[in-house]
Specification:
The chain is α/β, with parallel strands linked by helices and 754 residues long. It is built from 29 helices and 31 strands. It has a six-stranded mixed beta sheet, sandwiched between helices.
């Protein structure tokens, strides 16, 4: 169904192709970076170049000359832009004036060039020396009643070296308050995988996709969010692997793809069909679907005992089988159908396909993780996969697809609010400190801590916290209650305008730029979604002579705060190899770090579950049983999920278009089934207000245009951050505390009704 409500699809072409190429070139042109940006693109994701600042999909061993996707090109164009945000820019605009501007306009102004400090009397940012900025941070931190009154947030674009120093500083200072972007996205994955298989990471490598018989893609839109993944899926489809996509919306990237760097298909226009099967459950219906798939498997096993389940694997490696079998037999098809929104025959077809597939990979992203029942859903998926031994062998396993380039590496480096005792002991021994043992706060609890006066300083290492978090009004009020807010950034964003009593903007180097320290140009390292660590080194001149690297910012902040220390901050930053040597001594799996990154492909950290070693309480992989949640809503309510547009990466919006969904020039839209609109006497194109309904009250956004779309009845979707104000800060996933941005109960109102 089209954006106009007709019968023709809004976008008829395949994902990728000439449209992707044109879009990439247009972005370079708009940013004034045709030369500088093109130079960078030749080095992006190359063994001697820099890692894409976009997603964390891994690089293949055989790399092409152009190893980037459309969104990677846009990210590089944005970083290499010729536009600059100088002190003159801030002199011309009050913060109040800038706060009225759209987020896209803010980031389009270009690269930050100088450290800036907020002047509340003038309501403006003024340039400040680095020395004075660090003195202000250090003085404020030393003046707090407790180190736990400070929050140290981390973006997924932070390198391993910067992340390690950052968490080291926080712990030397005295707190485990290290919230990060993982808390907002894949925390549910880590919680579920950690409990069931003993490690909170995916178990597959890129090579596993070469031999998988069946690949499931659940709650994920690779065409927009991880475009390089489409190359992997294309290759799998071309060799005959079955690909099952599970998504409430029909997404073009999961239907057909033309690789924009492959000459033949580009000339002929011949697209590769991606999905052999496409399931559209209702939003939140994935747990019911997987319970149905388990039921199919058990029914087939009961009909042919010993021929369907992997009994040898189950006996040797798992616990909890009998409970799963009993539950599957007791689960009714009526409940599966009602709560999944899928026909019984559809579930049976996919269940039978799984039963006859020898090697299965399952991939997922936010569509599964941002629900109240996210952790039970993922634990049930684990059980389903374990029943046939689909972990710890070639071509099979779990693949949570991360959205930031180094979000997994940050966690490996110790960016976590609940660190293990072993990790803290290793830090203590290496640096002669006494790291705190009390648990810190995650991203959601950080907001509560600021709002309640328990936290007075917010330090953001990258990211755009105000735009990335739920319950926008509550989040912004919490940030404004702080004594000091500090943001390390490359470009202007919303968070700089949602400031505390005092505020600092600290501009840093981008991934594509030369990082020159005392020992010479430096490399950093990142970890991709599949636990491969590799080097990254920029080659472009920095956008300003006043920029510092993230490790340098951390080290100078530490020196200004801690004074005399057992940690040689300056020495570590002079040569990042020294940081990596320390990491090698502290974190298992990183032994020989500096030597191993000399390999052009980096090195694989390994994965205990992939070796069928289970670091769980039982010492086995643990099958779990969870009831199907009752997701019924009150009369007239819709299940709303937030998502990205195609011209968007996380909170960064490149344009107001969404090519694959047929949207041009606007973002305040809501995608609905045409019958849901008709039922409410609303025509496609009408404006509506949206009101979310929670136990803690209602929240409202106004003036959204309705778009008739191929989505199940009773469901709706729209873009974040525009819809973030609707998400209650109190609505979080059980266990993981992740905001439920994929499950917002809403009603639509005509503007006059509001």
């Amino acid at each position: 169904m089209s954006s106009s409500g007709g019968d023709e699809p809004a976008y008829k072409g395949a994902a990728g192709g000439w449209a992707a190429l044109r879009s990439s070139l247009m972005q370079l042109k708009e940013q004034g970076s045709l030369v500088r940006g093109t130079q960078a693109l030749f080095r992006i994701n190359q063994s001697t170049g820099f890692d894409c600042p976009g997603c964390a999909w891994p690089e293949p061993k055989e790399r092409s000359s152009f190893e980037f996707c459309e969104n990677g090109a846009k990210a590089v164009a944005a970083e290499t832009t010729s536009r600059r945000v100088t002190p003159n820019f801030f002199a011309a605009h009050t913060v109040s004036e800038l706060a009225e501007r759209p987020d896209r306009w803010l980031e389009a102004q270009g690269r930050l060039t100088h450290p800036m400090a907020y002047d509340p009397e003038e309501d403006r940012y003024h340039p400040v020396s680095w020395e004075d900025a660090f003195a202000q941070i250090g003085g404020t931190l030393r003046g707090l009643d407790s180190p736990n009154e400070a929050l140290f947030y981390t973006s997924g674009r932070t390198s391993n070296e910067a992340a390690f120093l950052y968490q080291l500083f926080a712990r030397a200072y005295g707190t485990n308050n290290l919230p990060d972007c993982s808390n907002l996205c894949h925390e549910s994955s880590g919680a579920a995988l950690g409990r069931t298989i003993g490690i909170g990471k995916g178990t597959v490598t890129l090579e596993d996709f070469e031999s998988a018989d069946l690949i499931l893609v659940m709650g994920q839109n690779p065409g927009t969010n991880h475009p390089r993944m489409l190359t992997t899926l294309q290759e799998a489809a071309q060799r005959g692997a079955a690909i099952v996509s599970v998504n409430p919306l029909k997404e073009r990237g999961l239907e057909a793809f033309v690789h924009p760097q492959h000459v033949g298909p580009m000339l002929t226009g011949r697209a590769t069909p991606i999905s052999t099967h496409y399931l559209q459950p209702v939003i939140g219906g994935d747990l019911a679907l997987v319970k149905g798939l388990i039921k199919v498997l058990v029914e087939l096993e009961d009909a042919s005992p010993g021929e369907v389940l992997d009994h040898a694997f189950l006996r040797e490696h798992t616990t909890g089988l009998e409970a799963v079998l009993t539950d599957a037999r007791a689960t009714s098809w009526e409940e599966v159908v009602r709560e999944s929104g899928l026909a019984e025959e559809t579930v049976r077809e996919i269940g039978a396909l799984y039963a006859r597939s020898e090697r299965v990979i399952i991939c997922w992203a936010m569509g599964l993780t941002q629900h109240r029942h996210a952790v039970p859903t993922l634990e049930t998926i684990v059980s389903w996969m374990l029943l046939r031994g689909n972990v710890g062998r070639p071509g099979a396993g779990f693949c949570p697809v991360r959205g930031h380039s180094n979000v997994q590496g940050d966690r490996s480096m110790g960016i976590v609010e609940r660190p293990s005792e072993a990790f803290l002991n290793a830090l203590d021994q290496e640096f002669r400190i006494r790291a705190p043992r009390a648990h810190g706060v995650d991203a959601v609890d950080a907001i509560h801590a600021m709002a309640e006066g328990r936290a007075r300083v917010f330090f953001g290492m990258g990211g755009n916290f105000a735009a990335a978090t739920p319950d926008t009004e509550a989040t912004e009020a919490a940030l404004r209650s702080c004594e000091l807010t500090v943001h390390v950034s490359t470009k202007l964003n919303r968070s700089h305008l949602v400031h505390g009593e005092r505020a600092l903007i600290l501009p840093c180097l981008g991934r594509s730029e030369i990082d020159l320290q005392a020992a010479g140009p430096q490399r950093v390292t990142v970890e991709d979604s599949m636990s491969v660590v590799h080097a990254s080194q920029g080659s472009l001149e920095p956008a300003s002579e006043h920029l510092l690297s993230e490790p340098a910012i951390v080290a100078r902040m530490a020196e200004a705060t801690l004074g005399i220390s057992t940690i040689p901050w300056s020495s570590l930053v002079e040569d990042y190899g020294r940081i990596r040597d320390a990491i090698a001594r502290v974190i298992p799996g990183f032994e020989g770090y500096n030597e191993r990154i000399e390999d052009r492909d980096g090195f694989y950290l390994g994965n205990s579950a992939a070796e069928r070693q289970w670091e769980t309480e039982s010492g086995r992989a643990e099958l779990a049983v969870h009831p199907i949640p009752d997701l019924g809503l009150g009369p007239g309510l819709l299940r709303l999920m937030t998502l990205r547009s195609h011209d968007q990466y996380n909170t960064t919006v490149y344009s107001d278009d969404d090519r694959y969904r047929g949207i041009r020039g606007e973002r305040r839209v809501i995608f609905c089934h045409p019958e849901d609109l008709a039922e409410r006497q609303i025509a496609p194109g009408d404006q509506v207000n949206l009101v979310s309904v929670y136990e803690d009250g209602e929240r409202r956004v106004e003036a959204f245009r309705t778009v008739a779309y191929d989505i199940p009845r009773g469901c709706a979707a729209g873009y974040f951050p525009e819809l973030n104000p609707l998400v209650s800060l109190r609505s979080v996933a059980t266990t993981s505390n992740t905001p439920t941005s994929k499950w917002i109960p809403v009603r639509m109102e005509r503007p006059e009704a509001g």
